[in-house]
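[Q] Does anyone have a clean structure-token version of this?
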Amino acid sequence: SERQDGTFSRSDFSYDAEADAYTCPEGKTLTTSGTVVNEGTTRLYRGSTFDCGPCHLKQQCCPNTPARKIPRSIYEHAREVARSLRGTPAFERSRQGRKRIEMLFAHLKRILKMGRLRLRGPCGAQDEFLLAATAQNLRKLAKQVTSPGPQMTQEA
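[A] Here you go.
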């Protein structure tokens, strides 16, 4: 959400969760009507044209529109929690674990052709997935069994 054109970005505005409103650097309030746009994922917060029009920061805030508009995802709170955890050792461990799991799913979809389930119903999907995971584990086990171990040298 950082802007490159020299105007204020969303981080320059402070959000008040209790009032469900943003406050601009000049102290004016941007409120929402509660309407959700973008397929039900984003709320728009708008400033008043009466507040934005005479403001001396208008050229830095909203030079091409009569008032400032800030989109906010309805999932922004969860994103803020994730941003606060980023960089911690627990987050890095979790990220590495997710990466390993996602690689297994990618392998199932691409190599074992599991992009689409062919059996119907939840039980059929569970059975098909269980068989695919078993095949994946057997392939991994076969690689470990057939690969030669470390060579031991005998010293006299």
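[Q] Thanks! Anything notable?
[A] The first helix runs from residue 49 to 52.
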